[in-house]
Amino acid sequence: xxxxxxxxxxxxxxxxxxxxxxxxxxxxxxxxxxxxxxxxxxxxxxxxxxxxxxxxxxxxxxxxxxxxxxxxxxxxxxxxxxxxxxxxxxxxxxxxxxxxxxxxxxxxxxxxxxxxxxxxxxxxxxxxxxxxxxxxxxxxxxxxxxxxxxxxxxxxxxxxxxxxxxxxxxxxxxxxxxxxxxxxxxxxxxxxxxxxxxxxxxxxxxxxxxxxxxxxxxxxxxxxxxxxxxxxxxxxxxxxxxxxxxxxxxxxxxxxx
Length: 257
Description:
Layout: E1 9-12, H1 18-29, E2 33-38, H2 42-54, E3 59-63, H3 69-83, E4 88-91, H4 106-134, E5 138-143, H5 156-176, E6 181-188, H6 197-200, H7 203-212, H8 221-232, E7 242-246
Parallel strand pairs: 1-2, 1-4, 2-3, 4-5, 5-6, 6-7
Helix pairs in contact: 1-8, 3-4, 4-5
């Protein structure tokens, strides 16, 4: 029986750690050939490639700063050069500063918006152009957050970037639908990744967070990756221009944090 994503080619930005790593591995397990974008820790990328090859998959790593247009273009070009096409673009790379409106510097603002939103916009653009040129449609998955819709005081630039990704997903999804390109947001809630290390290392903060999540715990990266594989597959063929939230129910909890 063919695998869900057999013969598909995927790019995952920020793909050597956290949610990105889990998505890259899950896509490979489903049969996709994967291009892993990274900017630090090349040894982590190498280890992930070995893990993918061990299960019979194919992957390459590309060092690219997705906040820079020329690097994003080079990332898409690398996928085509190595594997001949591009079918799935996962705009996952993201950072946060945990600063408020009053505290955020111009440098912090620019860095968060460049890596989180600018990269998603031009990643979508470059991927869509390639998908249109080769024919057959494609899938663009924007890893957003519950904070595309839910304010997080003290992390304003991050929320602004994720809100922008929401409208990018909705608008690009409408624009690109005639080309057979689906654009879907995937909005995790709290996930056990390095970005949440400080929370996980503080028992009282973690307990408060878990109590606000109806399922009672943070997600594992693999749980988000499973949704990404579904969205990349034909099983999600009628989904576009919307966000699918994988948040353990936290957005529906009237108690909140």
